[in-house]
């Protein structure tokens, strides 16, 4: 049982880790290079370098984390250039059909618009350009908390993830249940076998008593009547049934 438990936990842990990794870093289609959906961008240099290594960015293909062109999702990717110079008063976003970054003026932001230029490797120092919601930058005065359009693709992916988790929990439940089911069935088989032998022992005892009564010459004498012969044949039949039943029981225990 301990072996079942260890195997189950390892399998379940591996499955969950793979599911969460795929859910938090999902590759998107339609771009000229690998682009991944992420729930947040790095908040410091350590996280920036860690995410850069995670998606295999290099010195010639620098890591970027930017909004998509609809300002509804954050994307992380290794760009075609090592670094980008971000000009004063502008934020960046990724255009899907061209797979190029474009600029967006932040001069009307209520807060967070940088009044200096900087390299893209320091983007985490200016969070206003990567803080989005409701299809807009949160720092915009016109950004209202209205529901964003439903993304059917994301909804489908969420359902796939939910179904995968349900299947995983079902699998782990079945694996954990196997030892208990085996133990219950074995106990049930033993009980049935004991009842079976007890029943046929009683039949055997009754047959022996019946034969003793019929063969006792002092009480009834030797009886050759048709009724006696029929009873003898029936007793012989019962003995045969008992013998077959015992062989059947022995082969299934």
Structure explained in plain terms:
- The chain has 253 residues and is an alpha+beta fold.
- The protein is built from four helices and ten strands; from the N terminus they run αββαββββββββαα.
- It has a four-stranded antiparallel β-sheet.
- Helix 1 (2-24) packs antiparallel against helix 3 (152-215) and helix 3 (152-215) runs antiparallel to helix 4 (226-251).
- The longest helix is centred in the C-terminal third of the chain and has 64 residues, at 152-215.
- It is rod-shaped.
For the biggest β-sheet, the strand order reads: 1-2-4-3
Mean pLDDT: 77
Instruction: Based on Cα principal axes, name the global outline.
Output: rod-shaped
| Series of H and E elements | HEEHEEEEEEEEHH
Q: What is the CA-atom radius of gyration, in angstroms?
A: 40 Å
Terminal CA distance reads 22 Å
Strand content: 5-15%
Largest sheet, strands/sense/barrel: 4 strands, antiparallel
User: Which residues sit in consecutive blocks of at least 5 with pLDDT less than 50?
Assistant: 17-23
Structure summary, number of beta strands: 10
Amount of helix: 40-55%
Number of helices: 4
Question: What structural category arises from helix and sheet content?
Answer: alpha+beta
């Amino acid at each position: 049982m301990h072996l079942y438990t260890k195997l189950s936990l390892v399998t379940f842990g591996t499955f969950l880790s793979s599911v969460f990794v795929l859910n938090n870093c999902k590759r998107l289609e339609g771009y000229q290079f690998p682009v991944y959906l992420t729930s947040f961008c790095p908040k410091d240099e350590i996280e920036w370098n860690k995410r850069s290594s995670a998606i295999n960015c290099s010195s010639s293909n620098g890591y970027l984390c930017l909004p998509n062109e609809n300002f509804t999702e954050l994307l992380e990717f290794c760009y075609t250039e090592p670094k980008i110079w971000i000009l004063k008063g502008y934020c960046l976003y990724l255009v899907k059909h061209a797979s190029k970054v474009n600029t967006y003026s932040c001069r009307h932001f209520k807060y967070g618009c940088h009044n200096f230029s900087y390299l893209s490797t320091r983007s985490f120092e200016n969070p206003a350009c990567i803080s989005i919601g409701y299809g807009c930058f949160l720092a915009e005065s016109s950004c209202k908390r209205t529901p964003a359009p439903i993304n059917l693709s994301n909804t489908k992916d969420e359902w796939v993830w939910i179904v995968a988790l349900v299947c995983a929990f079902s699998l782990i439940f079945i694996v954990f249940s196997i030892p208990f089911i085996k133990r219950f069935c074995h106990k049930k088989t033993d009980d049935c076998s004991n009842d079976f032998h007890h029943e046929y022992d009683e039949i055997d005892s009754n047959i022996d008593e019946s034969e003793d009564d019929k063969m006792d010459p002092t009480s009834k004498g030797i009886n050759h009547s048709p009724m006696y012969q029929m009873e003898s044949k029936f007793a012989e039949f019962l003995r045969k049934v008992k013998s077959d039943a015992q062989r059947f029981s022995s082969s299934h225990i």
